[in-house]
Prior knowledge:
Blueprint (H helix, E strand, L loop, with lengths): L14 E10 L2 E11 L3 E6 L6 H8 L9 E9 L2 E2 L7 H7 E4 L10 H11 L6 H11 L3 H4 L12 H13 L5 E5 L7 H14 L4 E5 L3 H7 L2 E7 L5 E8 H6 L4 H8 L14
Parallel strand pairs: 2-10, 3-8, 3-9, 6-7, 7-8
Antiparallel strand pairs: 1-2, 1-4, 4-5, 9-10
Helix pairs in contact: 3-4, 3-6, 4-6, 6-7
Amino acid sequence: MTQDVGVANERVDTLSTEELTVTYDDIPVVSDVTVGFARGEVTALIGPAGSGKTSVLRALNRLHDLTPIARVHGSVRLHGKDIYDADVDAFEIRRRVGMVFETPTPFPMSIYDNVAWGARMHGRPSELDAVVEHGLRRAGLWDEVKDKLRQSALRLSAGQQQRLCIARTIAIDPDVILMDEVTAPLDPISTGKVEDLILTLRPDYAIVLATHNVQQAGRLSDRVAFFLVDESRAGRLVEWADTDSVFFAPRDARTEAYISGRAGSDMSARGRTG
């Protein structure tokens, strides 16, 4: 059973969680999260620092597998299949559920090779030129770099590097794109370009955007999941609904307080609904 409000019957989740809990050294950092993400939607994860947004993102494509002390409980389903089942290839999951990080992370290689990397890894070497051009065009970067594809990606500006990382992600045809504070280090102009790109990509992917910027969540998202920290210091999902409901008719008084800026990191995830 989800914590959703007013969802159309035809909506089908591409990726979903049920009672998702993440622990580090057996200590919960996020608990009992049930939420879903559909193609054609941007879902914003909002809440104070430490409320579990990044931990949820990392659970959605098995990045916690790379942290020995981390454990994931509950279920994460991609097209109905639990991605943590024993017969599921984590490498393939990370192709289908791509992730773009807060700090731009271009590889120390050419612009071309950055975008081609995934295609090479997934056995599509004969399609590299088409893959690279497609990825860069979708990321709105082709016209800026088409004459310097063999130059180092590290020579690009921070905003261009972040769009390159998005191009690298979409070049291998994911179903879901996870974005963790992707505009936090960028100037306003670069932020605007990345936000425009997110809206351009929205029809073709399920996009999950973790952000501290409430105004950005309001501008970009179709749905919002609001997290707070409980007394045990674990993040918990307080409210999940379409963006207008969360912003203008929240079910929980703490949601309204956070969105309006009247309360912040001292808020508790246990409290009275409004």
